[in-house]
């Protein structure tokens, strides 16, 4: 399969995680869900970078401290999570975090890159492709949590991933995404990769804000943190003919003929995000790695 320049509507589960005991969420062993996260980071406002604590919707499957939101807004979060993780003794049954927006650059690997019939086009995207990670809301709207612009990539498999990824990714990403991806047993696997599989996958690295590609960069919709904030609903994105509003699983691909056309689509997404009162987050601080399960105080 040849690499192609694609604009991708990528559907992943939109349900919100709930704490295990009111204040804490352990490493997820069930289906993927979203978390509304509080993190130090950077975002774009009026064409400049602002540093501060931000709130964002995203995927973080390891542990986190939870705070309940009283009187949630429609389609808004019920909890605010502060993420961290503990390296487990075993990854059996533990979910991976994909896409990964912490640190720099963003990463995406694996999910929906293969089916039982073989590789999908997601396994072969070319530089400049845009992936909109989001969910179907109310069966009639696509809501966005991450916009990923492809920069470069590394192909990997169970046979070589340790060698080819060594030095190319952070320790945190290895322990939160790559290790769960490959070290689960087949019987308990929650990921798309079967233990012992020799199939190759592609780890994509997102385009950075300070090194844009044709004016594009990866981002997540966010807002500055306020102690009284009730958060925000994920922004609805509408691109008739390109995005299917009621698509509730899988993916939809369009094939722009040039980076100019891709930039127009990406630009329309950013306009819609900002029109809904949100900023473009370009960095979220890496969650803390803890040597043992020392939960944050309430």
Shape designation: globular
What is the averaged pLDDT score? 93
Residues in helices, as a percent range:
10-25%
What's the total count of β strands?
A: 16
Query: For the largest beta sheet, what order do the strands appear in spatially?
Result: 7-12-11-10-1-14
Measured by DSSP, the beta-strand proportion falls in 25-35%
Query: Structural class per helix/strand content?
Result: mainly beta
Kindly provide the radius of gyration, computed on alpha-carbon positions and rounded to a whole number of angstroms. Answer: 18 Å
Number of helices: 3
Written as H for each helix and E for each strand, in order along the chain, the element string is EEEEEEEEEEEHHEEEHEE
Unreliable sequence segments: 184-196
Walkthrough of the structure:
- The model is unreliable at 184-196 (pLDDT under 50).
- The N and C termini lie far apart (51 Å).
- This protein has one domain (7-290).
- It is built from 3 helices and 16 strands.
- The protein has 298 residues and is mostly beta strands.
- Strand 8 and strand 9 (118-119) form a beta hairpin.
- A 6-stranded mixed beta sheet has the order 7-12-11-10-1-14. The protein has a 4-stranded mixed beta sheet with strand order 2-5-6-16, with no helix packed on it.
